[in-house]
Amino acid sequence: MSASDGARSVLVIPQLIVGLGNPGPKYDRTRHNIGFEAVDALARAWKISLAESRKFQGIIGEGFGAGMAKVRLLKPLTYMNHSGQAIRSVVDWYKLPPESVLIIYDEMDLPIGRIRLRLSGSAGGHNGMKSAIAHLGTQTFPRLRIGIGSAKEVHPNKDAVSHVLGRFSEEEAQIIAEVLQLVVEAVEYSLKHGVEKAMSLYNSRNLAQTQD
């Protein structure tokens, strides 16, 4: 068996789940803050209380994901470009390996209704992920991207910044509500069976198609 085969056989179970976003009412429920909404959805599903922590520069909670292994939820309050600071502080305090950190964030290259789990990868131009990779010192940690659609598809007259800092339309918001439920299911499956098995089950799902 090759080294890569051995690496693939390792079960990746998240212990810290991070949702990326920006703090403050100005950014609430914008496309760029879908990671925050995902963490809120997980907290509701698992009845985990979230509270602000100065030590961790974020809003954090601890509990059991669907009654399984202990998990921690984090929403960094450092603003997107410095998300890695908060993530690193939690990782260091609890002595967690980077590969146990699952980061949830928005993805313009995915249409609304799609999610994409991966075990590793580059930041892909996402500033929050650039910061996370820089502070964790590796790209080898799982991530779950939530499709927010590209600016050209959704608002042809808007630039990318205006697009990600804008809010979902009423029709889009209905799909996003279902997407967040799918995220909860995918993360719960990852906790039970590992991220790799969840990838094969959830990466092909398209909730936008079910709306037609």
Q: Could you please describe the fold and organization of this structure?
A:
42% of the residues are buried. β3 (58-64) and β4 form a beta hairpin. By secondary structure, the protein is of the alpha/beta class. It has helices spanning 3-9, 34-46, 83-94, 127-136, 151-154, 160-164, 170-193, 195-202, and strands at residues 16-19, 51-53, 58-64, 70-76, 101-107, 115-118, 143-147. A 7-stranded mixed beta sheet has the order 2-3-4-1-5-7-6, sandwiched between helices. It contains 8 helices and 7 strands. α2 packs across α7, α3 runs parallel beside α4 and α7 (170-193) packs antiparallel against α8 (195-202). Mean pLDDT is 91; it is low at 1-7. It has one domain: Rossmann fold.
Indicate the topology:
Elements: H1 3-9, E1 16-19, H2 34-46, E2 51-53, E3 58-64, E4 70-76, H3 83-94, E5 101-107, E6 115-118, H4 127-136, E7 143-147, H5 151-154, H6 160-164, H7 170-193, H8 195-202
